[in-house]
Amino acid sequence: MGSADSLTAVRGSIPPQALTDSYAATTYAAYTPADFHRAGRADPVRPAPVTPSPEVLSRLAACAEVADRSGEPDREAVAVLRESGLLALVVPKSHGGAGADAVALNSCVEQVASVNASAAIMLFQHCAVTSRIVENGSPAQHREVLPRLAGGQWLAASAWSESGAGADKKNLSTRAHRTPDGGWLLDGAKSFTTSAGLADVYLVLAQSQEPEEKPRGDEPAASDSSSKDTGYGAAGQTFFLIPGEHPGLLPDTKLRLSGMRGSATGFVSVRECRVPDTARLGATGVAASIIARVRNSGASLGAVAVGIAQAALDAAHEHASRRGLYAHQAVRHRLVDLATQVETARAVVERAGRRTSADPGLTTLHSKLAASATAERVVADVAQFLGSAGYVETHPINRFGRDARAVALMGPTNDLCKELVSLSWNR
Asked: The pTM is what?
């Protein structure tokens, strides 16, 4: 997620505009204090939490077990997140949020992941989309959308991936065409969208121009940097914010995953989906440059992996305590080795969040690679440590293993992270 300052040029190229058409009037209506009261929230300006409470963690832990058994989208976990105030994490305080930085976000996501990795990835994706809106949204989008995200009325999801497009999102089949009234017509299908069917608003990535095509005269021109190869995304791509109930947007949650089973990761189609130009996020054709700045924010999916690794370590300690194994030096030292791995992964994720390295973007990529590898390794070691106790199907260690594997496959996938790190070596 890029810094707000780095996006000033993009934001400045979009003139402020009121959302006055019928689409905007029904989906981006102003949110009033009375709406917060009806939703069970005392006050829209109440300080939002930056850490989950013990009660929230306990409820999310219970949700994780149920969702893993059923494989169904975890609606209860989403309800808990909405009530918890955590969806306000990265919304600025001026719009009812907590204004949390990447360090606080990573820490919060880790804590949630330690009890419910599916909820953690839904929270992370919500915050990722929210940050894109904060950085690239028009004043009208800030005014109308951010309070809903902060209040928990809207859960956000990113619909970027496609079957056949590759992890680097360079060959999108989803197209966005201009309509005579100045709006857009979107057509295509997205895969592996977290919170599919549960989200209230989707950030959809579409090819709006061919690489050599220039924007219309009434559209802001993309900067030269937007057309450069960033390793992720391609020239001529544009982001659109589309409400979940908008005609033409159809979620499909029949996809059954082995890990992150409650995350509602599935397909989202946009078929003859008509949206006004006010749904566009950022200038036309600059999505690739926006994506390229995402990793510079320090928000790291490695935080999810650290939470899973910590959960596995906690399971090992519980087993050792229950069986009286602390008396054995070999056991104690084995647990210390595992704790050192977890703490090391946590440190690199925190370093990514602080953005103090010479290249914060690379550090964020390294943090995902390091933490996800650590999580898989720690979970496997703990499973071996548990012996037959961990071989029971219902033992949480089996869920931790499947969830840990999922982190490596989430965008940017670990293979793409390595490609992005090494991109400059062939230039």
From this structure: 0.86
